[in-house]
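ok so for the tutorial part 2 we go from a plain amino acid sequence to predicted structure tokens. step 1 is just haveing the sequence, like this:
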Amino acid sequence: MPNPALTEAVYYILLSLQEPLHGYGIIQNVDKLSGGRVRLAAGTLYGALNTLLDKGWIRALENEADSRKKEYRITEAGLDVLKAEVRRLRELLENGMRILGEEER
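step 2 — the prediction. this is what the tokens look like for a chain of 105 residues:
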């Protein structure tokens, strides 16, 4: 069964975790990547992180400098899901452009 479509928040969280980041770093990176359009509240972020941990799409790393701050990183399974989502989004875009008669810019 194919993966369900990702929410924008989950998409940007997974994109952000190509390198280890702690929660606040993820919030900042998602804001930056989305041009300020997607703003994550702490509760939303940590709920999503727990779900992603449960699915095995990310893993928690121990932060040697500060044991209170967990860092997170995408797993191979998460990367596969993210790549599948990029393919799905590309298909949506290409079909929309073709049907609406718009050229790529």
